[in-house]
Amino acid sequence: MTTIAVLGAGKIGEALLSGLLHGGRSASDLLFTERHPERAAELTARYGIAAVEVADAAKRADVLVVAVKPQDIDPVLDELAPLVGPGSLVVSLCAGLPTSLYERRLPEGTPVVRVMPNTPMLVNEAMSAVSPGSHATAGHVRIVEEMLSCVGKVVEVPESQQDAVTALSGSGPAYFFFLVEAMIDAGILLGLPRAVAEQLIVQSAVGAAKMLAEGSEHPVILRENVTSPAGTTINAIRELEKHGVRAALLAAIEAARDRSVELGKGHERD
Q: What letter would DSSP give residue 240?
């Protein structure tokens, strides 16, 4: 069995470990690193997975999943560099960081697969995009896709598209949460109790997402089906267009893409 070590057991790291267990992996085939002892003890008690040091993870694991914050990558790579073995597969979950960074800093020929997941991994509904580095084979990509399928859906994209993926689906849940927050506030403004407004909007979001995921109709058709002539919805849509909501979303996602590019460029000369 392949041994998987998750380096960095934050929310995404923990969600991956939990998903792998629910997907049939044995706790004995999983490891994790965590710099806070209290957090490490909590996760071991919850999942039965051993907490280890980075050096031990590098020696024992076949797959090393790097799930630290992008700004914390340098010390992790410094520690991994002399320890990564020739048979190890490195999987990066760090936004904006290219596979070339890992390939420069780790031993020659190390296979690297870049992944952009998102936080619905916490409820096994992640959307993850994977891109192989120059030394990763189709077999390496299959390993990563099988691992991530335990926590949601997976698509393979060229690495040149990863910054766009980061902006669209990586940050995407935050856009929906922002919209839901605003709609709940609108319900309160119109006189509804907060709890009622929240229930109305959250269930509407769940239902709309299910229609998108399980149906075959384009979002435009689904929106038009709710929009009656001279009705309430078309008046609301007119105001959204008048206030430039569509343009604001386009600009926001472009800004997220640009920040992802910036994060990668910060390591170009490492």
A: H
Q: What is the band of 264 on the pLDDT scale with cuts at 50, 70, 90?
A: confident
Phi, psi for residue 159 in degrees, rounded to 5? -60, -25
Which string of DSSP letters, residue by residue, matches 8-55? --SHHHHHHHHHHHHTT--GGGEEEE-S-HHHHHHHHHHH-PEE--HH
Contact 37, 9 (CB under 8 A): no
**φ, ψ at 65 (rounded to 5°):** -100, 110
Domain segments of the chain: what residues? 4-157, 172-260
Residues 252-269, mean pLDDT to the nearest whole number: 87
Describe the crossing of helices 138-148 and 11-22 by its angle, rounded to 10 degrees. 90
What residues contact residue 97 under an 8 Å CB cut-off, 6+ apart?
A: 70, 73, 114, 263, 264, 267
**What is the rounded CA–CA span in Å between residue 218 and residue 18?**
34
What are the angstrom distances between the C-alpha of 158 and each of 80, 89, 130, 145?
26, 19, 8, 15
Give the domain 172-260 fold. ProC C-terminal domain-like fold (1.10.3730)
DSSP code at position 62: S
Q: Which residues of 219-247 are buried (b: 16+ CB within 10 A; e: fewer)?
A: eeeeeeeeeeeeeeeeeeeeeeeeeeeee
Q: What is the mean pLDDT of the chain?
A: 95
pLDDT for the residue 268:
63
Pick the CATH number of 4-157 from 3.40.630.30, 3.40.50.720, 3.30.70.890, 1.10.10.10: 3.40.50.720
